[in-house]
Amino acid sequence: MKCEICQSDTRINYGVANVVCSSCAGTDKANELINRSNMKAAKKPMQNHSIPIQGIDIAKLTQMLLWGGGAITFCAFLWWANFYGQVVKEFGGQLSEAATCLYSSSGTCALVSGLAQMGGGTPYDPVVFWVGIVVLGLGILLFLSATTKNRAN
C-alpha cells in the first residue's frame, strides 16, 4: 500500500484506517484525513472486526461460543423440563417446584435423581446446564471485549 497523501511506498499506519508515510504523519493533511475517516466511522454502524490471534478467528470463536452455549443451555432446559415434568406429573405439583433442580442437584433433586437412576432411567444432570452457561458466558465476554475494543479504536 502507498501513502494516502504523497503516494510513496514508505508507509506507516496512522489512525484507524489510514496509511501514510513517516514524512506525512502529523501533518495537517494527515490529521484532516483521520478526521474525515472518524466522521465516516461514526456514521456507520459498528462492525464486528475479526481479530486473528495465533490462527484463531475471534469473531468465529465468539459466534461458536454464543450459539453453542445457547444450544447446550436450551437442551439442558428441555431435558430438565422433560425429566421433572414426568416426576411432577406422577406425584402431583407444578414444574416450578423443581426449578432449583435446573441448576442444583442437592436435597430433593438428588433423591429424585437417585431413584430414577436406580429404576433404570437417565436422570437430569445440572452439570450440562452449567457447561452451557459457562460456554455462553465466555461467548458474551468475548463479544463484549471485541465491542469495547472496536469502540476504543
Which helices and strands occur, and which strands form pairs?
Elements lengths: L11 E3 L3 E3 L7 H16 L8 E2 L2 E2 H34 L16 H11 L7 H27 L1
Antiparallel strand pairs: 1-2, 3-4
Helix pairs in contact: 2-4
Structure described in brief:
This protein is mainly alpha-helical.
What does this structure look like?
With 153 residues, this protein is mainly alpha-helical. The chain is built from 4 helices and 4 strands; from the N terminus they run E-E-H-E-E-H-H-H. The protein has helices at 28-43, 58-91, 108-118, 126-152, and strands at residues 12-14, 18-20, 52-53, 56-57. The strands form 2 sheets. Strands 1-2 form a two-stranded antiparallel ribbon. Strand 3 (52-53) and strand 4 (56-57) form a beta hairpin. Helix 2 runs antiparallel to helix 4 (126-152). The chain is rod-shaped, with a radius of gyration of 27 Å. 18% of the residues are buried.
